[in-house]
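Weekly puzzle thread! Below is a chain. First person to post its structure in token form gets bragging rights.
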Amino acid sequence: MSGTIAIVGAGGIGGMLAVTLAEAGRGVTLCVRSPVGELAIESGGETRRATVPVVTAPEALNDPAWLLVTTKAQDTAGAAPWIERAARSGAVIVPVQNGVEHLARVRPHSGEAAVLPAIIYCSVERVAPGHIRHHGGSSMTVPDGPDGEAFAALFAGTRFTVQRTDDFATVAWRKLLSNSVNNPLTALTLRRGGGLFAEEPIRALAAAILAEAVAVARAEGARLGPEDAQAVLGNLGGFGPAGGSSMLYDRLAGRPLEHEHLTGAIVRAGARHGVPVPLNRALLALLAAASGHPLDGTA
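Winning reply:
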């Protein structure tokens, strides 16, 4: 079985994109280790359902035009056989992942294939295999250019919007600002964001974490400033009572955490540029301990 678009991973993001594309009549194939039946998305008081073709081995994947890698950043190596198979057939590889190191994660497996990194704003929670709860957001941003234009066309007429930018670094770092506080603090406290970020001590801590992240982002060439940090704080304050984070959901489910690719990216970039990030270093150590994988002192 094959489709024009192959999606690696049937978690929250992968399932959401598969249903969105299937609803619009796009040819979609899910690439997973174990078979997946019907996908169900709870969203805005309705349940959307779709069944899409599934392949469980890379050699069974025919030649897609696109391969969307929707695994968590730390699982990219596990997706390598799918990336290598699709890259050999000339597919555009689209890592739909958090963080700012998309190319570094994918390039070891993609060879000379085109890689189009994507930043997604979509809060989803996988509550059971194939069952996803959508809390809000349905947009992606990709670099401008022919591949970006073609990718946006894939989602034309769907419930997702795709924007293109000539400054992807700024977009990626802006998303990482939000992830630098929402993900770690909800995961460490095991609390949803609605009440957590209404507490003044937590907001003060978040502001200080964001100040470090903005300084690092600017050193990396992103066009961000204090106003971007304030915007993140404002958005966090507007979370509903059910709003959480992907890292919180992963910790609650006992899955590996994404801290090395979120907070870790800030710490690594800070070290490259000599920008001090003591709070982010502390968060990274705490998240590593909470995940069961303490740091080795080299971060």
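Puzzle host: Confirmed. Bonus trivia for everyone else. The two ends are 42 Å apart (CA to CA).
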